[in-house]
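User: I'm curious whether this sequence folds into something compact or stays loose and floppy. Could you predict its structure so I can see for myself?
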Amino acid sequence: MTTSSKGITLQQLHYFIEVAAEGSITAAADLLYVAQPTLSAAMKDLESRAGRPLLLRSTRGVTLTEDGAEFLGYARQVVEQMSLLEQRYLGRPPSRRLLGVSAQHYSFVVDAFVQMVKSTSAAEYEFSLRETRTWDIIEDVRTLRSELGILYRNDFNRKVIEKLLRDSGLAFHPLFLATPHIFIARKNPLASRDRVTLDDIADLPRLTFDQGANNSFYFAEEILSTLSSKQDIRVSDRATIFNLMIGLDGYTISTGLISDDLDPEIVAIPLAVDERIEIGWISHSSIPLTEQAQRYLAELRNVVTRFGVELLG
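Assistant: Here's the prediction. I'll summarize afterward.
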């Protein structure tokens, strides 16, 4: 495909963003109030102007090519900057805010998301927060389903995670170092302890987040995933894991950062192990963050520092 001498229009970028979000030219056409053949022709013209395929078409809809995922990041940047320019110099109201975040199951991530939504000045917004599996977080950011991902690495999984990120064109940005804690119900007899050992929790049900088809030790959300346990329960969401902590006196291992407002029945107790958890955010290496993503990261840093944790970057 050769590059067209004609330039790319702002309207085409708007169209492309909607097509990518919907995964369907037909669905995007309905949202944009544009005839499907018109939108399809606009996308083919955009690819001609860009000089490369941006969309993979099938009977199930469309997906982004590798070039398309990178193009989408830049398209979002251009559209957002044009919106900011129109607000400042033409007096137009703030545009609809967009942001997707995919993360492991951390309450401080949700807390920061709440603060971001409360502080937004836009009358309209479309935010998404996906608490999901480690592999899916990386895939979400790679395909730009989410602009940011939040996960952990440590000495055990570092090489595997870094290779996967590198192969996906993503970068890990350290946020803070956490000392491992167990999360348990307030009524659990261990809740009064200053710290606990692995022996203390040996007879309790261990609760972990299921990693699906990619259920490798390296993708586990919890450290010490290779240690055996007498009683193991895998779950898929944070509400369930907290309910099992309360109902079965189970535990999970995490960062120690937990919101009393969002999770009042759960407490964090330090775990006596020689380990550290490095929490960070991931993004595309070559695509600058949108202003909304930067706002979310600012709220995330604020929430973390309120716990008395020192930021790494």
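Summary: The two ends are 42 Å apart (CA to CA). The chain has a mean pLDDT of 89.
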